[in-house]
Amino acid sequence: MAKTTIKKSSLHISENGLENHKPEKRLEVLKTYKIYIGGQFPRTESGRYYVPVNAKGEKLANVCLSSRKDVRDAVESARNAFGGWSARAAFNRGQILYRIAEMLEGRKAQFVDELMQQDASRAKAGHEVNLSIDRLIYYAGWCDKYQQIFSAVNPVASSHFNFSVPEPTGVVCIIAPQNDSLLGLVSVIAPVIAGGNTCVVVGSYAKPLCCVTFAEVLNSSDLPGGVVNILTGKASELAPWMADHMDVNAIVYCEKDEATQKMLKEKGSANVKRALIYDKVNWYDDAAGQSPYFINDAQEIKTTWHPIENIGGAGSKY
Amino acid sequence: MIAETSTIKIPNFSLSPRVDQVGIEERAARFTKRSIKKESKLNGLLLALNMIDLTTLEGKDTDGKVKQLCYKAQHLHDAYPGLPTVAAVCVYPSMVKVAKQALGNSGIKVASVATAFPSGQSTRDVKIRDTKYAVANGADEVDMVISRGKFLMGEYNFVFDEIAAVKEACGSARLKVILETGELGSYDKVRRASDIAMYAGANFIKTSTGKISPAATLPVTLVMLEAIRDFYYETGKMIAMKPAGGISKSKLALHYLVMLKETLGDAWMNNEWFRFGASSLANDLLMQIVKEKTGVYQSKDYFSID
């Protein structure tokens, strides 16, 4: 009997405690924004960071200030991932891009919140996230279709079956648009990986929150590690190392800075790198901001001559 | 040879020094913290390149593959004139003749594995004939494996006698004794096997066959370097070292050189006394050397295939 009494009284006390509970001001757990290399989230090798500030003067986060050695590591993991990614069935690449869109949809609120921290209105942020999701779906659909558009059977004057097909160029370095920090990022990554390339991306310097969170989306959506690697930091510091890296096959640049455009083209000439300049594209305009030609930009056309019997007598044109 | 070793007092191998596992691993880890930049880095890379035993030990090796490897040994990267060559090419006994012919008078040595490599599970007679065959075909160096089974059974005399017999069969060829440290189980046993090999007449002690994992590691190599140092103090004889297997990056090769310099000193800092058993290390070193020269990160596309 005595035992029961004790139990009752202790229950009574705890109920009392619950009634008296008042909400306290909680110390928020802030997110550590790290870079994304080879499917991992390391800190920058350099140990440096910077603190971007929004228009209200609020500090956004401590963000990694990546160095050339992060570029080196990222290119290495992109190169390692290239064989597997480019060999995947085009249909499977489409499935994975669709999966990225699904995961982004699921974390919409977080992206809207981050865009608003970076000075967007709620309406504009919502619009940007929606467009980004739609853009991924758009390129998911193109994964197994652009080949038909850009392939050709060529007329030749000998007994050969001659055809040209697009093949991914390899590792693509991308300096993402600095202003449209989510939509711009998605719009330049999606066509590159849809075409079977792997990439190293430098996100927006002033608005870096979305690119790190987008890395988390990629990491949870069946995309093999190393296919997309995302760095934060100064494009002006990292771009020269990307431009003359012999193991990089193309470089994407979206700003109007002509000196940088010239530098990228000049340094890139060492290994005949493609310099893709998208400085006049309005990413909000579906007609201009998405197209299979963005996929084609990072493709090499391979032409094959296949000897055949002379079938001209049968009336065939090839 | 027998006369030479007989002047040295053979110790009781059961009493080989014990190794402090925590201490050796921490000491080895500290070598990876040295900062080597610019000119000293370039010199280190060139030295490492010159210390490589370029190796192909596959069941599918053909004459063509060995010839190609020998060509690579002599022309590492012709776009960069003035590079050193590798130290040696390491092949199976059946390929020694091909390699010897392909290397001609380039000065690059031919090393041959022998004694029923990689397991060593055969009779002494077969092992001796294997060795003699390699030497008769022109091998400058012989890489033998110890009988790990006998060693782990505690039959140290058997292992000792076998090494001494193979050494005799080698004649003037230098003998590398592979301990296969990944199968020995502890640093104590690595130390003991090193002592047995050196007293039995090894010119080199070598970590691994490259056929099992773990192969060479920094701590295991440090244990063996310390055994070499103690042997040198005891007898006045220098023994060479060859870590093999798992060293494919330039940075790691530089860590090994730092460890070598700080453990044995400058006398060992050349390819007579230190080798890397590796195949893909050469290309990584070349890429780093060209990076140092041009300031531009390099691509495998512009270097020969391993």
Structure, explained:
By secondary structure, chain A is of the alpha/beta class. Chain A has a single domain (32-307), classed as Aldehyde Dehydrogenase, Chain A, domain 1 (3-Layer(aba) Sandwich). Chain A has 12 helices and 10 strands. Chain A has helices at residues 2-20, 68-87, 90-106, 108-117, 122-142, 146-150, 183-194, 209-219, 235-243, 258-268, 286-289, 292-297; strands at residues 49-50, 63-64, 152-154, 160-168, 171-175, 198-202, 228-231, 250-253, 274-277, 299-307. In chain A, strands 7-6-5-8-9 form a 5-stranded parallel sheet, with helices on both faces. Chain A has a 3-stranded antiparallel sheet with strand order 3-4-10. Chain A has a two-stranded antiparallel ribbon with strand order 1-2. In chain A, a hairpin with a 5-residue loop joins strand 3 (152-154) and strand 4. In chain A, helix 4 crosses helix 5, helix 5 (122-142) runs parallel beside helix 7 (183-194) and helix 9 (235-243) runs parallel beside helix 10 (258-268). Chain A is globular. The termini of chain A are far apart. The model of chain A is unreliable at 1-14 (pLDDT under 50). Chain B is an alpha/beta fold. Chain B has one domain (20-293): Alpha-Beta Barrel (TIM Barrel), CATH 3.20.20. An 8-stranded parallel sheet of chain B has the order 7-6-5-4-3-2-1-8. In chain B, helix 6 runs parallel beside helix 8, helix 8 (156-170) packs across helix 9 (187-200) and helix 9 packs across helix 10. Chain B is globular, with a radius of gyration of 19 Å. The model of chain B has no long low-confidence stretch (mean pLDDT 95).
